[in-house]
Amino acid sequence: MLKHSRQRDSIKDFLMGRTDHPTAETVYSHIRETIPNISLATVYRNLTLLADLGEIRKLHTGEGPDHFDGNVAPHDHFVCRSCGQVLDLLQEGSTPVRSMDGSPFDGKVESKQTFFYGLCPDCVEQRPEAEDIGNSISRR
Amino acid sequence: MLKHSRQRDSIKDFLMGRTDHPTAETVYSHIRETIPNISLATVYRNLTLLADLGEIRKLHTGEGPDHFDGNVAPHDHFVCRSCGQVLDLLQEGSTPVRSMDGSPFDGKVESKQTFFYGLCPDCVEQRPEAEDIGNSISRR
DNA sequence: TTAATAATAGGAATTATTATCGTTTTTATT
DNA sequence: AATAAAAACGATAATAATTCCTATTATTAA
User: Fold this and answer.
1) Of B92, B94, B98, which has the smallest distance from its Cβ to A89's Cβ?
2) CB neighbours of A27 closer than 8 A, spacing ≥ 6?
3) In angstroms, how far is D27 C1' from B6 CA?
4) What are phi and psi of A121, to 5 degrees?
5) Are B56 and B68 in contact (CB under 8 A)?
6) Domains by residue range for chain B, with CATH
7) B116·A97 Cβ contact <8 A
8) Contact of B114 with B77, CB cutoff 8 Å
9) Which nucleotide is nearest to B44 (CA to C1')?
10) Helix boundaries (H) for chain A
11) Are B75 and B86 in contact (CB under 8 A)?
12) Model-level pTM?
């Protein structure tokens, strides 16, 4: 049985109030302003729980730590390899899922995530001829 | 300047010879049969290097460790939450990348990854009424 | 065939996240 | 309101995946 908690409410509210896509660490440092003794483990615990409940989305960007999104409506994301920011994109038109031979995929599809990678509009402007890969944010 | 190495060739050859999507650990244990004293760090180093060169693809599935794909032609992937296997899918029709307001996205898009999650055909057959989420493979 | 430098092996270190566990909160039940 | 059951918590240890470090070896250029 799910019980109420101030910490979880606070985390949920925080995420709903922004359009960027904070990491657990970012959520933690902000919530601490209101609940100074909250634990990082509690932040992770509740972010994962909220994601399992479908109230938020966990984004595995592959670039550093996971990010979290309070907007659960279907949309795609862009990850900037220079500044690391995660931007929302319109979801591209969804076609039926098909195996490599063209036949309909007959597993059970429960969710989908699409990430685009490159340079965000701000960073592309700052270095239009950028050729070098990965020099500002940690790659892994 | 890039120098030749037996280890890197062996890793590349291994990946090109299969259609599944091994993890670094899997690559490591197989290469060890030929080069017994190869280091896991060498495997990671070369997998990352080959991915940066565009010769292979690194897949951030978000479920456990990254996987690697010797097939660099555009296609999507399916990740089974029960058995963990990564399957190839036809890439869904690509439309121009657009921001949330519908305008063309004006960053520089360099790559894209789409993952579908759920139960693969084999696992869906074994438990057709599967309701429970994440009980066999480690979630993170 | 020697000098340079890239790449390696092996292990330590780091990063991100989850598990553990004793304590505190919340909620249902007297 | 008091009590009891069980969720949730905070603090920290543990784990998983990956990267870093350093002395040595292999490759290429001169």
Assistant:
1) B98
2) A11, A14, A15, A43, A47, A68
3) 11
4) -50, -45
5) yes
6) 6-138 (1.10.10.10)
7) yes
8) yes
9) D18
10) 6-16, 24-31, 40-52, 121-126
11) no
12) 0.88
How far are the Cα atoms of A62, A72, A125, A131, B132 from residue A50, in angstroms, in the given order?
Answer: 21, 11, 37, 39, 16
Can you give the pLDDT at residue A95?
Answer: 85
How many angstroms separate the CA atoms of A9 and B136, rounded? 30
Residues in chain B, how many?
Answer: 140
Run of H or E residues at B14: helix B6-16
**β-strands B108-119, B76-80: how paired?**
parallel
Reading phi first (left if > 0) and then psi (alpha if -120 to 50, else beta), residue B62 is in left
Give the tens place of pLDDT for each residue, B96-130: 999 999 999 999 999 999 999 999 999 988 765 54
Q: Please, what is the end-to-end C-alpha distance for chain B in angstroms?
A: 38
Query: How far is it, in rounded angstroms, from Cα A86 to Cα A63?
Result: 10
- Which residue bears the tokens 């790659």? A139
CA-to-CA distance for B101 and B35, rounded, in angstroms? 54
Contact (CB, 8 A) for B28 and B38: yes
